[in-house]
Amino acid sequence: MNSASDRAQLRQHLKRLRRGVPQAQRRAAARAVAQHARRSFNLRPGLRLALYSPLPDELDTAPLVQLALRHRCRIYLPRITDRRARRMQFIEAGGAMRRNHLGILEPLRVRSLPVRCLDLVFVPLVGFDATGMRLGMGAGYYDRAFAFLRQRTRWFHPRLIGLAYSLQQVAHIEGAPHDVRLHGVITEKGPIKCTTGY
Question: How many other CB atoms are found less than 10 A from the CB of residue 102?
Fold first, then answer.
């Protein structure tokens, strides 16, 4: 896969696969992913944890949110701040929410936490490979927010962990210079440590 059209075709194919997951399997996968995350990471009071508000076809984060709250983690959600520049911030969860232009629920609060201060970020995705290459929806919000992680000699946090169904893994995704790789992925089958070299 080495062109924008190839990426677009793969994105559409994986989105079709993701849409085809039955509801009962979706619920079971979300619970399994939450348990794998609990066992893989030290969820503890004060941990600054970013999650996403899922679109209908994305892996549901509700069971993981419940676990994180039980462990008294501080939860942050993305909020788009500049559509033209494709910029977003992370806002502490709680209080009123609204849907943005993409249909994603966002917090109405405006006070944000700098992304460098997050400990762990659970990221939505359309596809991924074993090297940590992530195929998203194509807007580039996460790549822009975490571009500093490409300077690996300086920044080691936050850790970016994709959440996905196992059927979203592919053999290879050709990266672009702006892509930020994942440190790992959690599917219903368990955690996958990506060979990013980070």
Answer: 12
Q: Are 17 and 168 in contact (CB under 8 A)?
A: yes
Dihedral (CA of 148, 172, 29, 99) sign: positive
Residue 169 is classified by DSSP as: B
Encoded tokens for 168? 């979203």
Nearest CA-CA partner of 50 in 141, 125, 131, 161: 161
Question: Using an 8 Å Cβ cutoff, are 77 and 91 in contact?
Answer: yes
Q: Which of 8, 30, 2, 57 is closest to 163 using CA atoms?
A: 30
Domain 4-122+134-175+185-193 has CATH 3.40.50.10420: yes
Q: Is 160 helix (H, G, I), strand (E, B) or coil?
A: strand
Give the separation between CA 195 and CA 96, rounded to whole angstroms: 39
Q: pLDDT digit string (tens) for 6-34?
A: 888 999 999 999 999 999 999 999 999 99
Rounded distance between C-alpha atoms, residue 98 and residue 108, angstroms: 7
- For residues 175 and 127, the answer to whether their CB atoms sit within 8 Å is no
Locate the domains of the chain by residue range: 4-122+134-175+185-193
Confidence of residue 120 (pLDDT cuts 50, 70, 90): very high
CA dihedral 70, 31, 48, 41 (to 10 degrees): 100
- Which residues partner with 9 through β-bridges? none
